[in-house]
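User: Before I run my own analysis I want an independent prediction to cross-check against. Here's the chain; please return only the structure tokens and, at the end, one sentence I can use as a sanity check.
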Amino acid sequence: MVLDTLTGSHSPAPRCTSLDILSVHSMPSQPTATEREMEAQEVAELFHEDLIPGTELMTDLTDVHFVRNAAGKVLVPQPHNDPRDPLNWDVKWKLLSMFGMFLMTITTAMGPLSIAPQVSYYMAEWDRSLADVLQFTGVCILVLGFSNFLWVPITTRYGRRPCAILSGLLGLGCCIWRAKATSYNSMFAASALHGVAAGPGETFGPIVIADVMFLHERGLYMTLYLWAYMGMLMIGPIIAGAMTLNYGWRSFWWFCVALYALQVAYCVALFPETKWNRNAETPQDIDPTSVATEAEKATVDAEHEDKAAVVGETDSEKTAAAARGDNTATTEHVGARIEHHDNYLWHGAPCKSQFAFVSSLALGYDNDIKRIFLVPFQLFMYPIVQFGGFVFSFSASSFLVINLTQSQVFEVAPYNMNVAQIGYTNFGLWIGATIGMFTAGPLSDWISMRATKKNHGIREPEMRLPTLIPYGICLFVGSMVTMFGYYNEWRWPVIVVIGFGLVGMQVAALPAIALTYAVDSYKPVAGEVLLNVTINKNLWAYGVSKFITPWIEKSGYLPPLGTELALSMLWLLFGIPLYFFGKHARRWSRNSSVHRM
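Assistant: Structure tokens:
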């Protein structure tokens, strides 16, 4: 039997979706569904484990050898033997791609929640109430979530570059409109359209990270992405407050115009297409010589000759090859050599077509648009996805509550802060988020790798969940300090340093851990998982922005902030049963159509 890939190397099969890292490049034809089921069963018997979607094999089988990095880690997913494969790109191009993604993330996050220090200026400009002005934020958040029904299909069907460039151009226009708005209705409409432009900021990063980075690298980069996104939501009000105080509120939007212009220029020039066909045995239009040197071509030819020679080996010759450690052994269980060679690992580079507006390498697969509109709602039936969505939602909304209340708290007695000083309170959030960023990714990866070693090289997504504990404590303590600090009018350093700092720390950590858990469990529909989570988060955020101000005016700070904290902790506590029974939840959905996407 021939073992096939789950997350990234070959065509998906109805059932064989439990091995994420096997790759074969010498199969004469695609195996049938029955053969794939037998393959998965053979590996499961060998390891005495039920290998279901999400479970990952992080070690070699007896006669199955994987591509590894310099440290000896099995690379997941296995890259193609092609220099254009983003997984094979050298460090320079990987970092350039990551920087482009981070620049887009920062740009899209800058505007929507940055108006908090400016609220009093908008109230005076158009003679509107506090609740009316906060709807600039509310409508932007609401539209932002649903806009990904536009952006995710574009990203899935046409590639990452069209999404980055088109959303950047739209954001550029929206910020010009906001800078020149002359009425409340005009600013409201511009805010709504800005939400459309900002949508990719919540889905684009994880998709590009999965394109370019191996599994063992993604924890760090996911945390960096969320730190960049959440961090800019915190830095944005600081910039907005200072610019508004010195140059007027319109100056901030002209600053956003410049930032969008920089993002578009960078993406056009230095952000290559990262989408790659991992569902084909041989990527379409393959021509490794388009980037390879003559020496590399010779190596490729030699490899093909070696593979042809292996077909005629006797059993004794195969055994001798295995004893020599040649990585050319075959297995009676498999019936053909299962081995992945990659001559371009860390030496590849994007080709010219990957800088086209729509790259030919991004077309020809993942073109079922129906899945974009149906699968996100189907995923509402899956407990793991809902857990990830609600943890993300309530972790982020604890920050949103601070964003929506800081102006009304600190601009009056006993604080009497000006607009710039109110903006500076966000430094507490940002420093906390930075600490969370530097600790959550490495801690999550260390905990899951340690558990993987104890589990004989088999990794389960649930192994990341214990990392939620320290940051859940940060959420609880930070929210309590903020809530009672508001109510009792404690000194601002206590509220900002302890309360805001701990809330910032958890908002860079909890969403990354929960989202990674959900995506690891349902990798074939990672984009739809992100869309589902975004809808969940933004619907809740809109409700918070719509009702929290009237609720505070009626009942004070304790009831609304206390309710928010209680719900946040409730969803975190669901991590306990999922740690013990999450694999059962994945087993229930193992035959779902989402694993054949």
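Sanity check: Residues 9 and 278 are 4 Å apart (CA to CA).
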